[in-house]
Automatic annotation (TrEMBL):
Pfam families xref list: DUF6134 (PF19630)
Name used for this protein in its record: DUF6134 family protein
Domain of life of the organism encoding this protein: Bacteria
Length: 221
């Protein structure tokens, strides 16, 4: 949408007119053109980038995940939402929503929420308060004084080049990053499971979730 607006502005003010010439009483005002382009580019910078992933199990699509990143000046806002419906021994319906806010590359807040078969799980929150992080899970509170500049949500938009560990908003701790190959990384989770992330041109294209009970592929559409 934004590139189309820029093209329209350029055509309107810069392209030669075939049927109408500008008169001396109606000259083009360069300042006006620059102002319009500045406003358009400012709107473009604040627009969100959204990606969709199909969630598959045994080749069958069982859900969808959406990743959104919005940059506004010094602030970066991340949102991940997903819905999964499948059956193991019994039917499972899972909805998730993760949110994070970075400022100047530093995590300020993050929230992790889960609804499983209609039952809401305890929300996990990470908040930067008084020069340290407060970690909350339900009524339980802990602290962390290590700076957070890269969390697991960022894996969907930024390849972890030269990054040795990342912060898990769900487990509320740092996790090592293991490079498995060219543009391939493995994240071993504290619960014994692990995820493999595959990147192309710095962007995540595939995530393979390796659980003790199942394997799930999340493929970028």
């Amino acid at each position: 949408m934004i590139p189309a607006i820029i093209i329209w502005v350029c055509r309107k003010y810069f392209a030669p007119k075939r049927y109408k010439k500008f008169s001396s009483q109606n000259p083009v005002d360069p300042k006006r053109v620059v102002t319009v382009l500045f406003l358009v580019c400012s709107l473009s910078a604040a627009f969100a980038q959204q990606s969709k992933f199909n969630i598959k199990r045994n080749g069958e699509v069982i859900g969808e995940m959406y990743f959104q990143q919005k940059n506004e000046g010094e602030n970066t806002y991340l949102t991940i939402t997903s819905k999964v419906q499948t059956r193991f021994v019994f039917k499972i319906n899972v909805e998730t929503e993760d949110q994070a806010h970075f400022k100047n590359g530093k995590l300020l807040t993050s929230n992790v929420s889960r609804i499983v078969n209609g039952n809401a799980k305890e929300v996990k929150k990470t908040n930067w308060v008084n020069n340290l992080y407060q970690l909350k899970t339900g009524d339980k509170t802990n602290t962390l004084d290590q700076p957070i500049s890269y969390n697991m949500m960022l894996l969907y938009s930024k390849e972890p080049v030269n990054i040795s560990e990342i912060y898990s908003d769900n487990f509320q701790c740092f996790i090592p990053v293991q490079k498995n190959g060219v543009h391939q990384y493995r994240i071993k989770l504290p619960d014994g499971n692990y995820n493999d992330y595959h990147f192309e041109n710095g962007v995540c294209k595939l995530v393979v979730v390796n659980h003790s009970l199942y394997t799930i592929r999340m493929e970028r559409v």
